[in-house]
Specification:
Blueprint (H helix, E strand, L loop, with lengths): L1 E4 L2 E4 L2 H8 L9 E6 L2 E4 H9 L8 H11 L2 E5 L22
Antiparallel strand pairs: 1-2, 3-4, 3-5
Length: 99
């Protein structure tokens, strides 16, 4: 799928994003996160890995739109909920385990 992030066009696929994030440890997150597999990654971390651009060059909204169109679940995590391993993509609940 073609999407524009930070004024640059990218051809992204769900499989490509999963492959890019394989082996990447999720950073602690408060705010918007993307559920990839069983892990919750901060949106800015995913955008940086996938586009190879600095996090300051794109907005959270750009990456959230792209990930949603690709079929990933995006959530908003508050300070009381640890990011990390998700119990289920459908429910969007977070577990007490962090990575």
């Amino acid at each position: 799928m073609r999407c524009v992030i930070a004024r640059f066009p990218f051809e992204l696929t769900k499989a490509g994003v999963i492959a890019s994030m394989k082996g990447v440890k999720p950073e602690p997150a408060v705010g918007e996160v993307v559920v990839i597999g069983r892990r919750q990654y901060p949106v800015k971390q995913v955008g940086e890995v996938v586009t190879r651009q600095d996090r300051r060059d794109f907005s959270v909204g750009e990456v959230v739109r792209a990930m949603t169109k690709l079929g990933f679940t995006t959530l908003t995590v508050t300070a009381g909920e640890p990011a990390g391993e998700a119990t289920g993509e459908a429910t969007g609940e977070a577990t007490g385990t962090t990575f």
